[in-house]
């Protein structure tokens, strides 16, 4: 399936900003399941310096500075991608047992396992925790296949937690999300990653977009989509498999990947340093347009 994604982030400042340095991770990354046909950033005011690099995790990062005084700042990423549907995992019970996968990670057998091992460690926003291990335990019964265990965990998170965009922000601890059973897609991805790492397994955070469909009989509103987040688990000998607990599904051809890392802090869409500005208003608009096959 082919998509055009338009993602705009705009700041209106109370006072003039004299100088800013910025990093943007809004350019989709190519992969065997995703072809990037075209992608570009539109930046206002125009930057003085601009370059694109690949970060440690293989994500595309645009770096730029703005040195003219400004009261407004806007970044728009316009990308066209083709997403290839991943093969369906029809029999989740036929896969490596999760205890065996943990031992492979511990002994780091093979290059892919060595690379994946970093995703089993604590990260800035996600730490293995006894409470997370306790929540995960019913999914990780002895002798269960790893795909089946992760699929069960995804279903439980979808069933047990309420999507509530007013309850959390980026500073809300996972312990609070677990206690109140509320949050958004970023929280549910972090929660699943923490549960999986608490079992000694490797999981990474994936940021991107998902094609949303309007209610029957209603037109889709321009800019009404949003950034999305899910998680991916390392399966020895098979590679990485994605799971979306917010929507209780394994991503197919409606999920568009932008970046991945240990947690959200590795894939923040826009961050930087400004001099001036004081208070500000932030607006974000995302449109995912289906262009057909």
Number of helices: 6
Low-confidence stretches: none
How much is the radius of gyration in Å?
Answer: 20 Å
Terminal-residue CA separation: 5 Å
- Report the top-level CATH class of the largest domain: Alpha Beta
The share of residues in helices is: 10-25%
User: Element order, helices and strands?
Assistant: EEEEEHHHHEHEHEEEEEE
Mean pLDDT score, rounded? Answer: 92
State the secondary-structure class. alpha+beta
The rough form would be described as globular
What count of domains describes the coordinates?
A: 2
CATH architecture of the largest domain: Roll
Describe the structure.
It comes from Methylomonas koyamae. It holds the Pfam family Transglut_core. This is Transglutaminase. With 293 residues, this protein is α+β, with helices and mostly antiparallel strands. The chain folds into 2 domains: 2-84 and 268-292, Sandwich (Immunoglobulin-like); 98-251, C8orf32 fold (Roll). It is 20% helix and 40% strand. The protein has 6 helices and 13 strands. The chain has helices at 98-107, 111-116, 130-136, 146-160, 174-180, 185-197; strands at 2-27, 34-44, 49-54, 60-66, 70-83, 162-163, 182-183, 203-210, 227-235, 239-243, 255-261, 270-276, 280-292. Helix 3 packs across helix 6 (185-197) and helix 4 packs across helix 6 (185-197).
């Amino acid at each position: 399936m082919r998509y055009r994604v338009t993602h705009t982030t705009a700041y209106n400042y109370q006072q003039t900003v004299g100088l800013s340095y910025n990093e943007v991770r809004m350019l989709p990354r190519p992969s065997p399941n995703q072809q990037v046909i075209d992608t570009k950033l539109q930046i206002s005011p125009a930057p003085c310096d601009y370059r694109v690099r690949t970060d440690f995790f293989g994500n595309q990062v645009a770096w730029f500075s703005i040195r003219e005084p400004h009261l407004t700042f806007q970044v728009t990423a316009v990308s066209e991608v083709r997403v290839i549907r991943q093969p369906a995992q029809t029999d989740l019970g036929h896969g490596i047992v999760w205890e065996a996968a943990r031992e492979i990670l511990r002994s780091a057998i093979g290059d892919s396992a060595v690379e994946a091992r970093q995703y089993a460690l604590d990260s800035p926003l996600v730490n293995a925790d006894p409470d997370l291990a306790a929540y995960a335990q019913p999914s990780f019964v002895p002798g269960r296949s790893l795909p089946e265990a992760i699929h069960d965990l995804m279903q439980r998170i979808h069933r047990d937690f309420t999507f509530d965009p007013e309850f959390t922000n980026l500073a809300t601890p996972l312990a609070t999300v677990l206690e109140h059973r509320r949050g958004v897609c970023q929280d549910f991805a972090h929660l699943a990653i923490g549960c999986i790492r608490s079992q000694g397994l490797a999981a990474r955070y994936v940021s991107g977009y998902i094609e949303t469909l309007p209610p029957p009989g209603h037109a889709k509103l321009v800019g009404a989509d949003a950034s999305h987040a899910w998680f991916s688990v390392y399966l020895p000998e098979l590679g990485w498999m994605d799971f979306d607990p917010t929507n209780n599904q394994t991503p197919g051809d409606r999920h568009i990947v932008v970046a991945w890392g240990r947690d959200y802090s590795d894939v923040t869409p826009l961050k930087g340093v400004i001099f001036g500005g004081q208070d500000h208003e932030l607006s974000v608009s995302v449109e995912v347009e289906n262009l057909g096959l």
